[in-house]
Design goal:
Number of helices: 17
Strand order of the largest sheet: 1-2-4-3
Largest sheet: 4 strands, antiparallel
Helix content: 40-55%
Mean pLDDT: 79
Shape: elongated
CATH topology of the domain at 181-231 and 250-386: Phosphatidylinositol 3-kinase, Chain A
CATH architecture of the domain at 181-231 and 250-386: Orthogonal Bundle
Oligomer: single chain
Distance between the termini: 134 Å
CATH superfamily of the domain at 181-231 and 250-386: Rho GTPase activation protein
């Protein structure tokens, strides 16, 4: 069985857990071993399992070379606790696995992790105001909207200037959106962008959207300082920026240990338990750098502001320490980068479930965060621009044409990708000519208007849109088909018309003899 890349999607952590178990069972070499004058068939030493599994995880693109030997030992401890493996006497669960010569074997069947059954979460969509209804209360959050369908009559009345008629219209002044409306718009469009970036049909199986706080998103976007760090509303905490820092030998190690102990006491990781599946799913996009950057930017907006600020400060410190060549070594056995990843991975991401590869996934995520923290922990500018543009549109004065339902709110603008100039010109030409061609055809085939009015409208249309008109009527004969000539009775031919007209006498020259 060959390892494969597990992409983003529902239950990615479960799929990875089951795949590693299957690879381990199918590939781990088994042979005969002796222990205390007794032979045991089809078993392996603990150190052999660590060697083989460490190499497997390092070559697997779902984890990569960042996996350390100690992380592999921790994973084998989980395998022993969950009866993926057992010792040669059949014991498992409470036995502690060590990187030594103890013998282990596979049970007849290693239990795979079942896929969890989540209650179906109703898809939440932003609800925009219905501007025709009277204003009930300022705190109204859920306001219905009427659907808009553009038919010919509606289009005709909007563009009737082209044919010389302007129907009656009036301005519709829209009410201001409440803060609750704006927060729901942010939540809806953020969820939509995240779903599109991950390439999923729905977020229901990777995220419970009911637990996403819209206020947190807005605060993470707008309540920031010049460096982009979140500003908390509680400013009562003292600042330590003015304290004098000691410079004794070993000061860096003491500071590192103090910070590691502080974050190590957290009961919940900074990325929170309910966002675990989202961040694990994002890791499936690591082969696409720009996609994973955007997905992490959006996912970090969902964090509580306190968590986002701690994450920003912690990851920035970790990155600076990792790339600081002048920093004294913090450990004699491992590099500074490896030590930092091992010390802070669990406080950033881990799972409630014991049957998970959270140590490996957290190490991979933290390494990527350290290398790209300046981009990831910034506000996604394209999302911010799209939301603000949509809010401005909703607050804009609209024109209502008489008899046409144009005062309803249009849906949120869909996201787009960049195209070439030629493609843009082609789309603009085709997109605008199709409704114009339909309008011209309606005028041409309308039998209820008089011939005089039809000719007048066609002439005005030809003057306004000559290219569209030329496609429909390439020759005068094509246009003449619309106006067949009636058989008129010719007047009788008069007899005098057949005679030659009177010619005056021309005097000729005479020759004298």
């Amino acid at each position: 069985m060959e390892p494969r890349l597990v992409g983003p999607g529902p239950y990615r952590a479960t799929r990875l857990w089951n795949e590693v178990i299957e690879l381990f069972r199918s590939g781990m070499p088994l042979r005969k071993h002796r222990c205390r004058f007794k032979s045991y068939e089809r078993c392996f030493k603990a150190s052999e399992a660590v060697d083989w599994l460490h190499e497997l995880l390092g070559c697997n693109q779902n984890f990569g070379p960042e996996v350390t030997r100690s992380q592999t030992v921790k994973l084998l401890k989980k395998f022993l606790k969950n009866h993926v493996i057992e010792d040669i006497k059949g014991r498992w669960g409470k036995e502690d696995f060590q990187d030594d010569g103890h013998l282990y074997r596979f049970p007849p069947s290693s239990p795979l992790k079942p896929y969890p059954k989540r209650p179906s979460c109703a898809k939440e969509a932003v609800k925009f105001p219905d501007w025709n209804e009277p204003k009930t209360s300022a705190s109204q959050e859920h306001i219905l909207v009427k659907s808009v369908t553009t038919n010919f009559e509606m289009w005709y009345k909007r563009h009737s200037i082209a044919i010389g008629e302007v129907p009656a219209c009036k301005l519709m002044y829209r009410r201001e959106l409440t803060q609750a409306n704006i927060e729901e718009i942010w939540k809806s469009m953020t969820m939509s962008r995240l779903q599109k970036t991950l390439g999923l049909d729905s977020l229901d199986e990777v995220l419970d959207t009911k637990l996403v706080n819209a206020k947190h998103i807005v605060q993470n976007v707008y309540n920031v300082n010049k460096q982009g760090i979140v500003i908390l509303e509680d400013k009562s905490r003292p600042s330590c920026s003015d304290l004098k820092q000691p410079t004794y030998s070993g000061f860096e190690r003491d500071v590192f240990k103090t910070i590691a102990d502080y974050f190590g006491q957290m009961k919940e990781p900074l990325l929170t338990f309910h966002l675990f599946d989202i961040f694990v799913s994002v890791l499936g996009l690591l082969q696409k750098h720009s996609k994973v950057i955007e997905a992490l930017q959006i996912s970090c907006l969902l964090l509580p502001p306190e968590n986002r600020k701690k994450l920003q400060l912690l990851v920035r410190m970790m990155a600076r320490m990792s790339f600081n060549k002048d920093l004294p070594p913090l450990s004699e056995s491992v590099t500074t980068r490896t030590l930092i990843v091992q010390a802070f991975s669990r406080c950033i991401l881990f799972s409630k479930d014991e049957m998970d590869l959270d140590e490996l996934l957290a190490a991979k995520l933290v390494s990527f965060l350290m290398d790209n923290y300046q981009e990831i922990l910034n506000i996604p500018s394209s999302l911010k621009a799209a939301v603000e543009e949509h809010v401005v549109y909703l607050q804009r004065v609209q024109i209502k044409y008489s008899g046409a339902d144009t005062d309803a709110t249009f849906p949120a603008p869909s996201f787009c990708h960049q195209i070439s100039t030629d493609e843009f010109e082609s789309q603009r030409a085709n997109g605008s000519q199709e409704p114009l061609a339909a309008l011209l055809e309606e005028i041409a085939m309308n039998k209820e208007i008089s011939v005089k009015d039809k000719k007048k409208k066609l002439k005005q249309f030809q003057k306004s849109y000559p290219e569209v008109y030329r496609v429909r009527f390439p020759t005068p004969e094509a246009e003449a088909v619309l106006f067949p000539e009636k058989n008129k009775q010719k007047p009788p031919i008069l007899m005098w018309a057949l005679k030659k007209p009177f010619q005056p006498f021309h005097r000729t020259r005479s020759f004298r003899m």
